[in-house]
Task: inverse folding
């Protein structure tokens, strides 16, 4: 780990000022990913700003009937919160499918969105990586790429966003609240993470001097019809090869609203409103599910070791929709 | 970890460890794990992978189990920390989880054991473990390379029974899926 200076912020504006005043400074909350990256010399911030004392750990009701998840609420406190369990069980189930209990006790909701890819080459400072060192190359494209992306890739990067929570948040159409030097703004979850394109060093659209303050859940929580299917190499405590968050609203056996988000397949949680629209008005059943799955994966491209993910994702979509519709 | 450096001044922090307030000056990059082991000579907490993957470094911070290798000591200024050294009673009586480990021979080499036991105490505080399946899932952050898992499970079941919680048993466990069985 590199040496660095350390500061504590006790109000959001002070954290933002720290970021603006110190080039390369990083915020630390749970630290579960950042400290790991620092031990590997992948991250070398000259200054860490501890934000654990900011008053952002609450989970509270919103006037529109939704729920506000504080950026500093831990993953564990969020997943086991009675309102999340009752109204957003898709989110609770998804959070509990990720990491280990110890990590969920540390990891915060804001930090979870900012976790970085687990691409082997990104983590290995002995190899080139366009995400870690722009312009140095991508060994994953012709190398070991079993865990890598099949959708939205570029010639520069085929890394995946590794997390679970954001996949459910994408299906729930959550909104990320951020604070910067010029005030506050809202970023829909679907626009928070980005595709790698020619600038894979940027995982998301958060600016370097912005702080995540909260994640807002809209009223609609798909509490009755939802599913999170996570396919991984171990039955617990492993990143997804493919995951699917599905939320449905149904009337008389027909689907009236559908939300689908895929994890482990792209540089961001993958949604496709066209595939969701294909389900609306359909009777829940294998034909409709497979049609939506085929549409979601229509532009998928496999590499040497991850082509299996394309059919795996299709089948995971079908299974998630079946589980959600029969719940 | 980083060698001593003059680049950043040490921070003076206070940690209450196993009921005792301890003040110390640490560089900001010192993890809680290294502070415990190297600054306070509390070597019961083990360094396994040092990346949050094995659980050997599990301690309780304000009653919650965490990986002490993935948090900085300076981030925990003012916290109450319980390590394996703090679980036994003042008279030396073993904590029920420790006693259950002895009774069920829930270890071989013993290196993961302090983390396993602290994690189990944390899991009991959380109160979500009911079935064997729950226990396996909620203990997935603690690896045992010797493979003492069956006996660790026995120790956990006994402790849950003794606490009067719904006893976990093989009856309410999910059967092993066919694809997990040897051909």
Result:
């Amino acid at each position: 780990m590199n040496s660095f200076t350390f500061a504590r912020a006790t109000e959001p504006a002070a954290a933002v000022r720290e970021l603006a005043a110190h080039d390369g400074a990083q915020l630390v909350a749970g630290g579960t990913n950042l400290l790991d990256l620092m031990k590997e010399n992948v991250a070398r911030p000259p200054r860490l700003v501890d934000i654990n004392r900011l008053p952002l750990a609450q989970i509270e009701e919103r006037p529109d009937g939704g729920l506000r998840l504080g950026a500093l609420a831990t993953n564990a406190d969020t997943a086991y919160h009675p309102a999340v369990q009752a109204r957003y069980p898709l989110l609770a189930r998804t959070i509990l499918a990720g990491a280990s209990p110890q990590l969920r006790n540390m990891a915060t909701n804001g930090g979870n969105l900012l976790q970085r890819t687990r691409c082997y080459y990104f983590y290995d400072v002995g190899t080139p990586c366009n995400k870690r060192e722009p312009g140095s190359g991508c060994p994953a494209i012709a190398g070991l790429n079993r865990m890598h992306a099949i959708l939205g890739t570029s010639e520069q990067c085929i890394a995946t966003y590794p997390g679970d929570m954001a996949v459910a948040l994408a299906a729930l159409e959550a909104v990320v609240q951020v604070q910067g030097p010029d005030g506050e703004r809202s970023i829909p979850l679907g626009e928070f993470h980005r595709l790698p394109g020619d600038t894979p060093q940027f995982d998301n659209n958060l600016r370097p001097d912005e702080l995540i303050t909260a994640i807002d859940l809209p009223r609609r929580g798909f509490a009755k019809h939802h599913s999170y299917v996570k396919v991984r190499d171990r039955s617990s405590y492993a990143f997804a090869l493919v995951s699917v968050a599905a939320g449905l609203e149904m009337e008389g056996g027909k689907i009236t609203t559908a939300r689908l988000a895929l994890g482990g397949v792209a540089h961001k949680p993958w949604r496709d409103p066209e595939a969701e629209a294909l389900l609306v008005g359909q009777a829940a059943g294998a034909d409709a599910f497979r049609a939506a799955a085929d549409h979601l994966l229509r532009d998928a491209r496999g590499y040497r070791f991850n082509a299996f993910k394309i059919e795996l994702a299709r089948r995971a979509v079908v299974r998630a929709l079946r589980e959600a519709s029969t719940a | 970890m980083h060698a001593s450096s003059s680049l950043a001044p040490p921070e003076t922090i206070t940690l209450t460890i196993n009921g005792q307030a301890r003040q110390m000056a640490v560089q900001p990059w010192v993890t809680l794990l290294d502070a415990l082991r190297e600054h306070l000579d509390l070597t019961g907490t083990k360094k396994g992978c040092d990346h949050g993957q094995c659980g050997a470094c599990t301690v309780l911070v304000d009653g919650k189990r965490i990986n002490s290798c993935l948090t900085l000591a300076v981030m925990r200024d003012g916290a109450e920390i319980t390590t394996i050294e703090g679980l036994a009673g003042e008279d030396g009586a073993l904590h029920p989880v420790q006693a259950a480990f002895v009774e069920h021979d829930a270890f071989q080499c013993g290196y993961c054991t302090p983390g396993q036991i602290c994690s189990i105490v944390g899991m009991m505080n959380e109160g979500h473990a009911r079935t064997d399946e729950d226990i396996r899932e909620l203990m997935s952050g603690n690896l045992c390379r010797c493979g003492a898992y069956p006996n660790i499970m026995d120790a956990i079941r006994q402790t849950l029974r003794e606490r009067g919680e719904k006893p976990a048993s093989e009856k309410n466990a999910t059967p092993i899926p066919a694809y997990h069985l040897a051909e």
